[in-house]
Amino acid sequence: MLLSFLLRKCNDRDANTLPQFEIVYLLFLPFMTSFLFKKELTIFNSILALNALDIPLYEKIPMQALFIGFSAESDAELWEYGYGMLLNFSICQTLMKIGQLKSLDVIDCNLFSIVLTNVLYMIDPELPSLSFQILRGSLIAFFVTVAINYIISSLLTKMKKNPHIKSLSLFSIFVIVFPILMDQLIQLESIDERPSMWLLQYVLGSSARKSILLVWLSFLLILIPNVLIFKSNFSLNTSRKIWHFLILLLITMPFQMDPLFVKIALSGTIVLFLSVEYLRFLQLEPFGAYIDSKLRSFADFRDDKGPIIISYIYLIIGISTPLLINDSPVGLISLGVGDSLASIIGGKWGRYHWPGTRKTIEGTLSFIIGTSIVAYILKYYMEYFADITFSNLLWVCTISGILEGNSELNDNILIPTYMMILEKLLSN
Length: 428
Prior knowledge:
Protein name: dolichol kinase
InterPro entries: Polypren_kinase
EC number: 2.7.1.108
Strand content: under 5%
Largest sheet: none
Helix content: over 70%
Shape: globular
Family: Belongs to the polyprenol kinase family.
Membrane topology: Multi-pass membrane protein
Number of domains: 2
Number of helices: 18
């Protein structure tokens, strides 16, 4: 009933008419992800999707509150859901203001607000893994630091301080306060040490982890300068997809060697990328302008629509989400192989387009073939996909490839999550 109501209201059309795909995207991903991996939050996350309704605020908030009142099974749960609803609304409004509904549209803002509400508040931090606890604590530290900087920025503006002094002050506060807050806010259950000291001992306490870290650092030190130097020899699309393929190479083997360490690294990388975007967004001296110029050189039309460069953040989230939730490499496969092949081959040799899109059938076929081959290698030679047959993996790759070819939404989020859902549904 709730989903049918939302589809009618968001679409403003008859209940028998198919809704816009963006609305299906908003409903399907949180609902199915909750249902398959955190069943007790399924109804709550569906209620949060009501925030996308294009109706006055005085109707929207009471409507969500009414549904929460019906779904809550106790007073404690009622208050928990109520606070979660308000947090979700605040996050969504903040994202809309920052992205100006250009970098992030209404659907993106609502989807990310639902994810952040779950990570920051709804999911009990004592139950999930160490990687989740690190992700949660790091995100809270990041947002608190940004809030502190926002207040200080407002004060410095009123005091009419020199822009260079203001910029350097905000940068200094960020690089000092953020690490300190992370050390205080990351709560690692059953570990008495400070998180920073524990992490250092954790990495140095294993030869495998030291080897993984050394390989990562070596690749970054060698590859980043070379990609920047030889970028002019490739098209923008090809130079962007190089990063997708490199991440596939850098994670698949290490994840088999030490999955927890890789998940901790990915959790930290998500927050690191948000920090880089924050420095770039405000162009804080001394590195903000330089970061902006380098990232803009890889920006596509989506990044140029608004003030936020979203592609690299979407990429790390799309790759990390299936690994963090389900230990699944489908994000690596879909973005490192499928999306890259579809974009490059479809763009160069594609002739037959899917109706109503710029994407080609040739690109879709390359997605399906490429992801199927890599899935076969990972299953039979690297011990991934233990709970799903290869024939069902072919269905996952095929259906996801068709979706990628027919959707104009951001593939970096949609396809990995969709593949993760399909994998779970088709597992033994």
